[in-house]
TrEMBL record, chains A, B:
Family: Belongs to the class-II aminoacyl-tRNA synthetase family. ProS type 1 subfamily.
Name of the protein this chain belongs to: Proline--tRNA ligase
Pfam assignment, any one: tRNA_edit
Annotated organism of origin: Nanchangia anserum
Function, in words: Catalyzes the attachment of proline to tRNA(Pro) in a two-step reaction: proline is first activated by ATP to form Pro-AMP and then transferred to the acceptor end of tRNA(Pro). As ProRS can inadvertently accommodate and process non-cognate amino acids such as alanine and cysteine, to avoid such errors it has two additional distinct editing activities against alanine. One activity is designated as 'pretransfer' editing and involves the tRNA(Pro)-independent hydrolysis of activated Ala-AMP.
Length: 597, 597
């Protein structure tokens, strides 16, 4: 049915909402697409709902095309399956929990791994039933600490989550590849630029893990790219370690008095002033080895103190450190350090901990105590020379050589990535960029199937744990990303295939004749299957109508104005900015052709 | 894309689910349409989801056709708006309540009156913005004490709720009529028989209220109908009161000793044995007036004791009584009655309470105390003669005449409706029937607009409270009703417009030739836009395929069997039971015509 502005439930706003910082948030609210109901919880207005449905339909079609069957799980779920996989606890405050009238525990599902696993277990029992792929497009809940940027990070949101079920790893690889290709098609059809980033599979236990990011300055996710095509999450980047070096010519390590050199900057300054290098090169931060004392929190609550060493010209990236350890990490507190007298804050170095430290005790079962583990950046290879804390107030060690003067418990990816770092695949220097995560595919492996006992009989009649993949797209977030990608300072500017309406038809004058001509065009287009929004408002000025048309963002506008006297109407392309005068008799055919109807 | 049984996520079950009592529940689970996730909470399997969507689409199209705009509210909502209307408390245990990480109160919405009201208040301010109608098709939550019959009464369910907003009562009447007509179209298009029943508007405060019921023996709702077209909820039926009668010839009331006449039956028997009527007619239960002592619970918790009198041949219908009073009602307890010594359980009559009772005290503000209110069936008109309890152990009063020997505080619709009672509109005798409530339309009036301060300026610049209507359809319940209406003992039998697939194509033999012929037919139909489910399973017997085809319930089946040698395939109509042999070359055209593609 033809929708008319005089009755359609849309009101544009002149002011940006007070809590909005990013363009998509501002415009989607101002143009009447969404409206805030509570922090991170939005109402879909008619325009927004139409757009969301079109985005979801593209996702649905590509899932169907790879033989992925659509189901829909409840959002309200009993706690038991999530307790079985421990996610009931692990999710912490992010999980909305509630009780029913019989005092049973329920949750609002953040994702549905458990339920998909149990459903397949319920109905399938043989390798002949596999492979299988299932998905849903459904409302999800996460009690985010900081809901942000409108529908980009909400507490109630629309997500497509798909899962694959295979009897062996090769099958999982095939399913993963099918989904990966479907994702590329989806984002291509939506016209949304994307980068496929290697991601950490992390605690989930599988092997391959990739994120689809829409590159965008307001994105929350940092990733790195090279000109040669490498892209990865900062967490997933591996450091290119240099070759080990001979160190025969390096003088013996020497402890020097470095009063007040509590920072790398002051250490470098003091060193250049008091201990200049013989070859005249200045000392730089890169010559120093910075030691961070952190506490890694194990699942049982144990706080393990660790010495993390990185070149002094880099900071520790806590996210990379946490991803590497697979544990939550905090800076070590005074309390944490009480047990380790060798650690002297401000003057700690690799000789203060590690396998060679006299306090180190290795138990019969291999457990380490006495001296903390020492983990250093992969660039700290044998033969590299460093200035580092001496473990004595006001002192540093010079000419400290890795492998000669200290050994470590291992390397760790903890240093921040800096523009210019080499890509691990040799594809050139890296640069950091920001993006919005719009999709994530990863190999779950057998974690959920094991926890919930999903097995099938293989060809030999042997029971096999099923291996799974998980494939998510934030559908409502993708719509926000599309708004980020398709707007200017006047408003939204949707591509045809996701615009809520294809064409905005308006009469700019106040004459009945103009209004009737506009209505005839709108009705004719509508009958041809074109989605038309007809601005039939009589007491609204041309200026307001133009501004609304640009704010609302339909790809084409047909404007009936003074040219009507000469049999002409104007056709405007919202995205191209083109304007052309077209004969009234030709406009329907022309615009229907533009929108493909 | 063509869906094939070998890969499609459907498994039929031979056994009825243990908790299922009604046909739709059994069949929808056995045929793999839905699956229980928790009590009253269901997962939509691929077949069920397709069917639900088709039902929802019919509802959507008819809402759109009357200019009702679609929105979608969150399911997770802050408590404040529901506290403002008092529903946060009133909903009691039926409301799922929870807290977020900041300890704020939230709920899972059972309906969205508050949110719609606030949204319109947010955007509209003038009579020129009205009338407006909005709807959503959305997941709702009610923590039912007794979830029942699968998706007929669930705790998470899909509902269409629409609301109208008008500046005056005439506008509300117009909006109500538009929705009423749309409802008739919806259920007609779905092919679902329905009865429009007058319902109590009850505590909601509006005037018109009608329920759409699907007449069905397993329905939870009782309603009454007459051959002349009257239909109403039992609660909404008004009793046809007889004319008042002269009572000059009736002897004076007389107290008689009636030992052991604690029940109406024993009273009648004792009366006929000991006090036969002079004209020889037997006493019957209809000659007695039964008094029930009940406690009506007021919103402030006060338990008001009331004497309810009904003819002795009828029971009190507690639902009717509660609806009439607009209060929750319990039988009065000994404790309740302690304050009223005139009430003698088993021997209470209308002279034990009411306005003429010596214990009655009327306060200056009109409040009543001392003697309970006495409310009687409308049939107890002036001049009617009764046998009733005398308020003295072992005694009844005979020849007790209403208006002469006792007066009451008022009449009340509390007696059960009995088959043969006259319809209030004179359209003939009533009979009771059962049904499933599939829709409810009612005039909310200004209750929510007042509570949430939704006002607009009228033509004179005066602020007016908006008047609202509320229009619901239980979409998932309608699907269950459709399954009740469309099945036989072998399985489901969907009409074309809501069947998940139009046609089931199967090859019954094991030959490659048969399979290929069936596949070619399936693909050709699919390309023509027909929804086809292709049974390509190779190791499944013809018997199982036939049984599955009948259980799954697609309207047409094309069976490739032995006739293929003669160039024939069989076309079966699931609903008609017809079978016909059709030339292979003609079958696509024929069946595409049947399904309208």
């Amino acid at each position: 049915m033809l929708k008319t502005m005089s009755t359609y439930f849309v009101r544009t706003l002149r002011e940006d909402p007070a809590d909005a910082e990013v363009a998509s948030h501002k415009l989607l609210v101002r143009a009447g697409y969404v409206r805030r109901a509570a922090p991170g919880i939005y109402t879909w207005m008619p325009l927004g709902l139409r757009t969301l449905r079109k985005v979801a339909q593209v996702v649905r079609e590509e899932m169907d095309a790879i033989g992925c069957d659509e189901v829909e799980f409840p959002a309200l779920l009993p706690a038991e399956p999530y307790q079985a996989t421990n996610r009931w606890e692990e999710y912490g405050d992010n999980l909305f929990r509630l009780k029913d009238r019989r005092d049973n525990d329920y949750l609002l599902a953040p994702t549905h791994e458990e339920m998909f696993t149990l459903l397949v277990k319920d109905l399938y029992s043989s390798y002949k039933d596999l492979p299988s792929m299932l998905y849903q497009i459904q409302t999800k809940y996460r009690d985010e600490a900081r809901p942000r940027a409108g529908i980009i990070r909400g507490r109630e949101f629309c997500m497509k989550d798909a899962y694959s079920f295979d009897v062996d790893d090769e099958g999982l690889d095939r399913s993963y590849e099918l989904q990966r290709q479907a994702y590329q098609k989806i984002f291509s059809r939506l016209g949304l630029p994307f980068v496929i980033c290697q991601a950490m599979s992390g605690a989930m236990g599988g092997s391959r893990s990739e994120e689809f990011l829409f590159p965008c300055d307001i994105g929350e996710d940092t990733f790195v790219v090279s000109d040669g095509g490498y892209a990865a999450n900062a967490e997933a980047v591996t450091t290119v370690a240099p070759e080990t070096k001979p160190y025969d010519d390096i003088p013996a390590a020497e402890m020097r008095y470095t009063p007040d050199a509590h920072t790398i900057a002051s250490l470098v300054e003091y060193s250049n002033a008091n201990f200049p290098r013989e070859d005249g090169r200045e000392w730089t931060a890169a010559d120093t080895l910075k030691a961070f004392m952190v506490a890694a929190i194990h699942p049982d609550g144990h706080r393990e103190v660790i010495l993390v060493g990185v070149p002094g010209d880099r900071d520790v990236d806590m996210k990379r450190l946490e991803a590497s350890l697979g544990l939550e990490v905090e800076m070590a507190t005074e309390e944490d350090l009480k047990a380790y007298p060798s650690i002297v804050p401000g003057f700690t170095g690799p000789t203060c901990a590690g396998p060679d430290h006299p306090d180190r005790v290795v138990g019969e079962d291999g457990t380490i105590s006495g001296s903390p583990r020492s983990l250093v950046d992969p660039r700290v290879v044998e033969g590299t020379e460093w200035i580092a804390g001496a473990g004595k107030e006001g002192h540093h060690l010079y000419h400290l050589v890795a492998g000669r003067d200290f050994r470590v418990d291992g390397t760790i990816e903890a240093a921040e990535i800096v523009d210019g770092d080499p890509a691990p695949d040799g594809s050139g220097p890296l640069r950091t960029a920001r993006g919005i995560e719009i999709g994530h595919i990863f190999q779950l492996g057998r974690k959920y199937a094991k926890a919930l006992d999903l097995k099938v009989l293989d060809q030999n009649g042997k029971s096999q744990v099923v291996t799974m993949g998980s494939y998510g797209i934030g559908v409502s977030r993708v719509m926000a990303a599309l708004a980020e990608a398709n707007h200017d300072d006047k408003g939204l500017a949707w591509p045809v295939n996701i615009a809520p309406f294809h064409v905005y038809v308006a009469s700019m004058g106040k004459s009945e004749e103009g209004l009737n001509a506009a209505r005839a065009i709108a009705e004719e287009l509508s009958e041809r299957g074109v989605d038309v929004l007809f601005d039939d408002r009589k007491k609204v000025s041309a200026g307001v109508k133009f501004a609304d048309a640009e704010l609302l963002g339909m790809p084409y506008a047909i404007v009936v104005g003074r040219g009507l006297a000469d049999g002409l109407v104007e056709v405007r392309g919202r995205r191209s900015g083109d304007k052309q005068d077209v004969a009234v008799g030709d406009v329907v055919e022309l615009v229907a052709g533009y929108v493909g109807e």
